[in-house]
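As the next step, I needed to go through one protein, both as residues and as discrete backbone shape codes, included below for the reader:
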Amino acid sequence: MTQNVLAFPRLGMLDQAQCQAIHLASLEILRRTGTRVHCEAALALLRETDAVITDGNLVRFPPGLVEWALAQVPPRVTLCRRGSDQGVVPLQGRVVNFGPGSDCPNYLDPRTGEHRPFKVADVIDAIHVVDALPEMDFCMSMGIPSDLGKVLSLSKGKGSPYRHQFALMLAHTAKPLVFVCDDLADCQAIVAMATAAAGGRDALRLNPTLLLYSEPSTPLQHSQTATEKLLYMAEQGLPIVHSPAPMMGGTAPVTLAGGVALGNAEVLSSLVMHQLKRPGAPFVYGVQAHHLDMKTTISAYGAPEYELARVMTAELGRFYGMPTWGNAGMSDSCALDEQAAADATFAVLVAFLTGTNLVHDVGYLEAGLTTSPEMIVLTAELISMIRRFVGGVRLDAESLALEVIHQVGPGGDFMSTDHTLKHFREMWQPALFSRQRMGEWVNQGRQRLGDRLREKTVALLKAHVPESLPDNVREEIAYILAQ
């Protein structure tokens, strides 16, 4: 009998030939149409290659240049916990890691149910929720505080909101951080803060605790600010996902294949510039293809087309041998309701079945305009449940249990066997979902899932204390923010 065999549920869509067809289509876009590069530093790198540059900044890429860049990029990225050289977020293979999104203007307060603009205190609360949940592997800033100007005037702080968001994350969680920023100066200040917390530039490069999320501009443009950040992260040897967001029907062809081929061309052209700056620098593959709902003219998150694009992105990333970037745990719904739960479940299941490595936007409502800590807590329960599902089934002799079946025999029971005692804890147990029957449920107050969600979220906000920064690191960060 075969021993130690595991059977896993998997989702497949593109075979090698189909991935190759998309790849060749993207190469043709880059060869024939090209991209506009609005960054002189990147153009200087490209002039040293056989890329063809006309009209000042229209760059057409020979296929061989793209293939060269693909051969340089490492297949694995590891993000570390602050103060540790142990990789806690391995971006490789089919390992799936979850975290929240960034920069929502609005906050759904779990204490009051109020929907209102984000405040600094809300950002801290949201970070504490992420820090407390073991299902959340990394943190993003989640909100843009509307009262940051007032807070900065009181503290005599300076600079854009992005570096202050990063400082809040650094102070309130030790988990790896995925950050966004406005420009090169922001990026440099944020890396300086992470360097202070890591104990030096070499320590940060060897044990990276942060990853930059930035974007080219669809269709087929590389802005100066985005490209400067791309080249800076390459120079520092720190990881980046430079993920386009083609809007199918708006800034990209309305067809999924066309939208993904266009986005893929934008990623590949970004990768060329990135690897020219520093061959072997860490890069995460992502194409955040959305589609424009022609009825409402908005971008739809909770749509089958959106999830199909996530599947294609995961499979193209593996085709190229790069770690992958995706989304889950978000909804178009404006409330934490049945639609939000359905959207989150669908997306988390797709993320697991496709093996997407770095999955963000957990907690988004209103298509990314609102962050809900309760949505984060709900999605954590879904992640826990679906992680068990994709863990599969063991088919070895111990699990097939032929000897136990023979000993118990016809008409017996398995409750008291050593085999049951040994293995029953392997079954998933919910933290929030109820398995009560009616009488017990009524006697305990008829709590619905939303009631339990709010209770747990508020309890986390009251009780959780994150790992603090050393005083000397706090002082260094304050100095950086004051510049």
Summary: The mean pLDDT is 95. The longest strand covers residues 87-91.
